[in-house]
């Protein structure tokens, strides 16, 4: 599909004039996840805020305490109201409901409670600071009504950054049932909010199509994929120190998963595949991360000698840790396909190591990867186990390695975050002609 890079002429011209005159914008970011979270949406929102601040813009953020993906507040933060500057941005943190069992209605209470606790702070901050751009990050869309109202009162332009089609995903994976009145009400709210924003930036073409199907003008929608820092994650980094620290033999073949351990990620498939390959002791399943499914994984690891579970590794050693893999695992539930694009993909590709992905042909993930990675059907642990066993018995293919590195280059942070900033600030892309013809996403 194609998406337009131009905004309505009045807005674009006013914005261009303001930037030429001052070089500085006042930007308000509103979302439940932010740095120092290192997984998922928080990582990207934090990098966006830091980038905009480094470019000289005045950045203010209203967010929750860092809590994802473990659904518990990370020390030394507390689950309350707080203020602190971070990487050049002013950060207001507001509490939210958290529970050890974040399932069902509890998954709904968390974003609702944040929307309630943060609404007065967001309203007051927008009215006081009068930002030129109000950027809302989904999840969670529950904060949109207050953000849109306050933005309208001060004449700010509004941007929705859709990282996750949370309404569709919540019902697709069964967090809130499978349909009925609640689904219709949630869908109506979702459609109404989406139509109210001046611009929507999302991370995949299929997600953009779903947004447009809600009645959003296609000219408002821009696709900017999540990026990877190619200075941090590089091919062929030495991971021998990690093997020693974790007590993993040099001869072991490591099938690595690093990221959120949640329902949408399909991590159940990992321990099912480990069960099928328990008679192959040279193959080690290494899972690093946190989230609602971690306890289930740890229970499986207690009875499976070929499965190990560790926490998130230090950010400074992220590239080294990814190089520990002999093959990366990227499971995903079929129901969540095209409702999100896994953010961990960029790091896997940049490491150049082989990747096994559970995705159906025709999904955006499969189309994007092409022949660079091996695909197995979602939910099929036998196929996943067979693919891992095959990878353990053959040398990596130089051609597919080159394809993975080429795809990683398309996801480079330097270009991706600059593209996002241009879209969010309503700037015309530097490489676009003056009439701003549509470009391929």
Features:
disordered C terminus, 6-stranded parallel beta sheet, disordered N terminus, alpha/beta, 441 residues, 8-stranded mixed beta sheet, 16 strands, 16 helices, single chain
Radius of gyration from the alpha-carbon trace, in angstroms: 22 Å
How many strand units?
16
Q: Report the uncertain regions.
A: 1-22, 428-441
Shape: globular
How far apart the termini lie comes to 7 Å
Q: Mean of residue pLDDT? A: 88
The biggest sheet, with number of strands, parallel, antiparallel or mixed sense and barrel status, is:
8 strands, mixed
Strand order of the largest sheet: 4-5-3-2-6-7-8-9
Structural class: alpha/beta
Number of helices: 16
- How helical, in percent, are the residues? 25-40%
Q: What would you say about this model in short?
A:
By secondary structure, the protein is an alpha/beta fold. It has helices at 9-22, 41-54, 105-129, 144-154, 166-172, 181-196, 205-212, 240-246, 268-276, 294-303, 318-322, 345-351, 364-369, 381-392, 398-410, 413-424; strands spanning 2-3, 26-30, 58-63, 82-86, 89-93, 133-138, 157-162, 199-202, 221-223, 253-260, 283-290, 307-310, 327-330, 355-358, 374-376, 439-440. Strands 4-5-3-2-6-7-8-9 form an eight-stranded mixed sheet, sandwiched between helices.
């Amino acid at each position: 599909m194609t998406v337009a890079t131009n905004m309505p002429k009045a807005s674009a011209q006013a914005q261009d004039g303001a930037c030429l005159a001052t070089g500085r914008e006042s930007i308000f970011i509103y979302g439940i996840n932010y740095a120092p979270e290192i997984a998922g949406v928080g990582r990207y929102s934090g990098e966006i805020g830091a980038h905009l601040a480094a470019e000289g813009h005045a950045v203010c953020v209203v967010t929750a305490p860092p809590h994802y993906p473990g659904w518990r507040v990370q020390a030394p933060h507390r689950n309350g109201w707080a203020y602190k500057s971070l990487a050049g941005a002013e950060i207001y943190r507001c509490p939210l409901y958290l529970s050890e069992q974040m399932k069902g209605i509890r998954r709904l209470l968390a974003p609702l409670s944040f929307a309630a606790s943060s609404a007065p702070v967001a309203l007051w901050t927008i009215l006081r600071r009068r930002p030129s751009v109000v950027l809302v990050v989904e999840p969670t869309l529950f904060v949109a009504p207050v953000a849109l109202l306050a933005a309208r009162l001060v004449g700010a332009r509004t941007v929705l950054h859709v990282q996750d089609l949370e309404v569709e995903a919540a019902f697709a994976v069964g967090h809130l049932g499978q349909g009925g009145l609640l689904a219709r009400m949630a869908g109506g709210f979702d459609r109404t909010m989406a139509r109210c924003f001046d611009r929507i930036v999302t991370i995949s073409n299929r997600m953009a199509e779903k947004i447009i199907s809600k009645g959003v003008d296609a000219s408002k929608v821009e696709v900017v994929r999540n990026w990877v820092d190619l200075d941090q994650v590089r091919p062929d980094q030495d991971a021998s120190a990690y093997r020693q620290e974790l007590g993993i033999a040099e001869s072991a073949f490591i099938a690595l998963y690093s990221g959120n351990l949640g329902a949408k990620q399909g991590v159940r498939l990992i321990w099912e595949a480990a069960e099928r390959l328990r008679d192959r002791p040279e193959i080690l399943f290494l899972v690093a991360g946190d989230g609602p499914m971690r306890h289930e994984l740890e229970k499986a690891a207690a009875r499976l000698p070929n499965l190990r579970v560790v926490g998130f590794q230090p950010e400074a050693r992220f590239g080294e840790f990814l190089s520990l893999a002999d093959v990366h695992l990227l499971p995903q539930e079929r129901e969540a396909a095209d409702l999100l694009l896994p953010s961990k993909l960029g790091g896997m590709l940049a490491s150049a190591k082989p990747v096994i992905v559970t995705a159906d042909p025709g999904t955006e993930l499969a189309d994007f990867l092409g022949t660079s990675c091996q695909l197995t059907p979602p939910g099929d642990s036998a196929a996943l186990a067979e693919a891992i066993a095959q990878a353990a018995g053959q040398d990596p293919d130089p051609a597919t390695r080159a394809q993975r590195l080429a795809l990683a280059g398309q996801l480079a942070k330097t270009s991706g975050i600059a593209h996002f900033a241009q879209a969010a600030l309503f700037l015309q892309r530097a490489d676009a002609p003056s009439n701003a013809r549509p470009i391929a996403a």
